[in-house]
Amino acid sequence: MRCDHYNMVVERKVSVVKNYAKMSTTYAPTLKEDPAEAELASHKLLLRAGMIRKTAAGLYSYLPLAWRSLRKIEAVIREEMEAIGAQEMLVPMVTPGELWHDSGRWEKYGPELMRMEDRHGREFCLGPTHEETFTDLVRNELRSYKQLPVTLYQIQDKFRDEMRPRFGLMRGREFIMKDAYSFDATVEGMQRTYEEQKDAYARICERCGLRALPVVADSGQIGGDTSVEYMAVADAGEAELVYCECGFAADTEAASAGITVAEGESGDLQKILTPGCAAIADVAAFLNMSESGTRKALAIVTGEGKPAVVFVPGNHEMNDVKAEHAFGEFHLMTDEEIEYYGLVKGFIGPVGLPEGIAMFADRSLQQSEWWVVGANEADYHFVHALRGRDFAISDDHWVDVATAQEGDACPRCGKALSAARGIEVSQVFQLGTKYSEAMGATFMDEDGKEKPFQMGCYGIGVSRTLQAVVEQHHDEHGIVWPVCVAPYEVEIVPLDVKGEVRDVAERIATEAVRAGLEVVLDDRKERAGVKFADADLMGFPYQVVLGKRGVKNGMAEVKDRATGERVDVPLDEVATWLTHAIVPKRA
């Protein structure tokens, strides 16, 4: 009896594994109209296709179809991490505040860190990232260089209390993230691990069907000296990036491109009446010259509370992230502050700048001698201003603050850069000893000395990747899932859910599942138009359409969702045809 019971259990497990899904029992409530809250196409489609639902601002539930795709993305990540020796584990989402105090980030991280106290008054936070937790975990366990290197990772919910959560899963407050942390004995070892992770991330993007560029990035709140983001190229992306055919790519917040500036004409310093020309475009038009020949002045108050003016090429902007690296937590002067310091808005220049105001300039201007600048007097500009004769900038006041843009020179090969927008899906960091030194995480080196770990940090936005795939893969009718991350690979669409058509549909669905394919059968008693619309909206890669006439003639129509191509396939060959089409496209 025990043996018979065991066989029954095994048979039941096999039948469950080899079953197909039914649309009539799949929880995927679709919407006919675009939700008012959604701006991006991907956000609209995930809501309309019944894949996500908003619980509160920045908080979303993943419905069954989206969850299937998320699990596929996670499976790709796990395979690539295992291939390079990273070990999966899980730490608590709630983190003791004392660890963040140890690292120095408790106050620095800002209001995005959700802080709280337990009933005993102890400080905790919801982890937006887990450098502190993993560093604490190993600092009393990894004691010798012989135990290194070690890379640990997890796939877990994270929480950041975003001020303006928007764009669905792109900028939510709670999100799914894979984060990994590496511990090496040497800088060289850390760099090798970093390169392994970077290469694995490129493969993950490719296997998930994303066209992504590895771009040089700013390290932000994480810190460290070197960082690369993987940006999924998309017109709706939040980030601006520049790239070159030689392979160089960088976030404009971090790119140090070669900026070519026009030189002003030589001559004696001359003050010109420029009525109403407070904007660079107006000045350039009035003087009949290019904007790059002018110099834009930005009045700021540095992180130390000191007034300063920063000059950049007239056709470029100052980048806030770069400027923060140069000046600390600066801010642009208000109109009141500009007046207080004796400056004239729209006509600020380096000649005759009020005393006590520091002068800085972007490094791109370092080779430029003749400037066209504001005259520090309303409605007047200077032409023929010669650096060294009429004004001077200290050697230590040349800074990299200009935003790189299309047409600037590639720093690698010198060719003109192209511009694009991107969605950040992952990022890798070389942390060095930033956290290990702050938290006293050391090991005994082979020379018998205590040394801090050389660390790396590697994050992938799993839920963000899901939406990035949809942003890159959709059309006017709905989602166009790549096979590798589609909730189901095949949808069987019988136009009659009774009689012979139903029987053939069920038989093909069963054959396809037995061939190893993932199948959903639309067994709903709906009109053909409704089924076709939902099939395109949900975007399963292949649709098998069965009607009375086709079944009578022994044929099924197979539609490739990506190309729209339709092929008539004999009923007995559908499963085989689909297998040959789908298996090579799997991740």
Outline of the structure:
The protein is an alpha+beta fold.
Q: What does the model show?
A:
The protein has three domains: 77-256 and 419-464, BirA Bifunctional Protein, domain 2, CATH 3.30.930.10; 270-399, YbaK/aminoacyl-tRNA synthetase-associated domain (YbaK protein); 488-585, 3-Layer(aba) Sandwich (Rossmann fold). The chain has 16 helices and 32 strands. A hairpin with a 5-residue loop joins β12 (239-243) and β13. Helices cover 28% and strands 27% of the residues. It is α+β, with helices and mostly antiparallel strands. α2 (41-48) crosses α12 (462-472), α3 crosses α12 and α13 packs across α16. The longest helix has 21 residues, at 187-207. The chain is globular and about 95 Å long. Strands 4, 8, 9, 10, 11, 12, 13, 22 and 25 form a nine-stranded mixed beta sheet that branches. A six-stranded mixed beta sheet has the order 1-29-28-30-31-32, sandwiched between helices.
